[in-house]
Amino acid sequence: MAPIADLYAEICAEFSRQGALGVLYVDCSALDEVERVYGEQAHSGALAAVADHVAGACLDVFGRREPLARGEAGRGEVLCFAAREPRDIDFHAKGMPALERAVRERLTRNAQRVAYPYLRKLPVLPIGTAFVQRNPIVAALSQLRRGMDEARDDASLNARLERRTRRREFLDVLVRGKLHSVYEPVVDAKSLTVFGYEALIRGTEGGAFASPLELFGIAAEEELLFELDCQCRRAAIEGAIGFPEGAKLFMNIRPTAIHDPSFQPDALTRTLERCGLAPGDVVFEISEQESIENYEIFREARDNYGKLGFQFALDDTGAGYASLEAVLELAPEFIKVDRAFVRGIDQDSARQNMVRAFQAIARDMNSRIIGEGLDTLEELRTLGQMGIPFGQGWLFGKPAPLRAEGG
Fold first, then answer.
1. Most buried residue, 14, 195, 199, 208, by most Cβ within 10 Å?
2. pLDDT digits (tens, 9 = 90+) for 330-380
3. What is the CA radius of gyration of the chain?
4. Paired strand residues for 374
5. Chain segment 106-155, per-residue pLDDT in tens
6. Which of 24-28, 164-168, 326-330, 381-385 is least confident?
């Protein structure tokens, strides 16, 4: 894909010959991270993938290819130029809007492929269009540049409108409480009996925010993580009415939850009582990947909860850089070893050694290990042979709502 500077003469000539020009702009600045981390070649490949989808959309809508260009130096953008006659009303009224929709749909449908393998998720790439009629008094290049600027402005406006819509939709989810919990069993590795259940948040099935990834992604974008965390905790407790006697309810919380008035020990205990639960039934899960700004303050809060019978688990242990520090500082009752160390552990001595290291630390701290992400009986047997007391994963069934009878 040539840079726009190399195509100015060609595009201006066709613009002048036809009399009008449609400009489609894709803002790819969000892909700059690929260049910073993986280099120029990887970044060029990602831009080329975007351009391929723009080219495909042109074929779908117009039945032909249109000139494509990479933005000016320092600009992460892909541009498409379609010259037509000024009186081509369908092109202006229907063609360019249809092209924008087609590009958007293609990028959404193929999101994982565009930045693969550099980004886990394709970031939002704003799209805009402009339509310019040739004015022979003004230089064609000046008009072309103005059209590019209009398309950029249109993309920026579209992005702001889309973000506003997403924020309003997400706020509606929070205000109306359109969230519920499903529960994944935590199983005794030897007896294969259920030791407890982890509450996992879900949105409305088929909705814009059905999965936890989507929920927490938009919450982070809109700085509403605290509000979402409150709803998650509420859903975890309300969905646990009829909870099996003697089982533990593992409830994910963010470290900031300790500052929530409704989460203070006395208030929380009253909430639990209304749902037939006691503090001794509840284990708070803190993700190892969540930043705890002040361990001293958090330990003090942990001790206050602990006096009432609440317990703590450190989730995703080993997934980040601060695992050992978090384990030592929090001294949780449970250490949940990340699935990366459990997957295929029956055939991998290195993974076994890593889990043994966590087991040794847990033993010294009087903590118990839970292996996450179990998929096979062989993995479960290996954990049992290693003395790991508990396991969790789809081996025991997919997360589901609790039945009224607690089954």
1. 199
2. 889 999 999 999 999 999 999 999 999 999 999 999 999 999 999 999 999
3. 27
4. none
5. 999 988 788 888 888 888 999 999 999 999 999 999 999 999 999 999 99
6. 326-330
| Structure token pair of residue 369 | 């290990």
Separation of alpha carbons 236 and 259, rounded Å = 19
Domain ranges of the chain: 4-167, 177-396
Distances (CA, A) of 287 to 182, 234, 254, 361: 18, 18, 8, 18
Neighbours of 74 (CB within 10 A): 7
For 1, residues 6+ apart whose C-beta sits below 8 A from its C-beta are 47, 48, 51, 68, 69, 70, 78
Which range is least confidently modeled, 255-259, 286-290, 389-393? 286-290
Both structure tokens of 372? 């996450």
Task: Output DSSP code: residue 345.
Answer: G
pLDDT tens digit sequence for 286-320:
986 666 778 888 889 999 999 999 999 998 887 65
Q: At what angle do helices 4-18 and 140-176 cross, to 10 degrees?
A: 100
Q: Do residues 330 and 314 touch, judged by C-beta distance below 8 A?
A: yes
**Are the beta carbons of 283 and 312 closer than 8 angstroms?**
yes
CATH-assigned architecture of domain 177-396: Alpha-Beta Barrel (3.20)
> Contact 45/38 with Cβ under 8 angstroms?
no
Whether omega for the bond prior to residue 117 falls within 30 degrees of 0, making it cis, is yes
Can 4-167 and 177-396 be said to share one CATH topology? no
Which residue(s) pair with 200 in the sheet? 182
**How many other CB atoms sit within 10 Å of the CB of residue 324?**
14
Structure tokens at 337: 């070893």
3-state secondary structure of 243: coil
Sign of CA pseudo-dihedral 301, 303, 309, 311: positive
Amino acid identity of residue 4, one-letter, is I
The model carries a pTM of: 0.81
Long-range contacts of 205-210, Cβ-Cβ distance < 8 Å, separation of 24 or more: 207/173, 207/178, 208/166, 208/169, 209/169, 209/170, 209/173
Q: How confident is the model at residue 75 (pLDDT cuts 50, 70, 90)?
A: confident
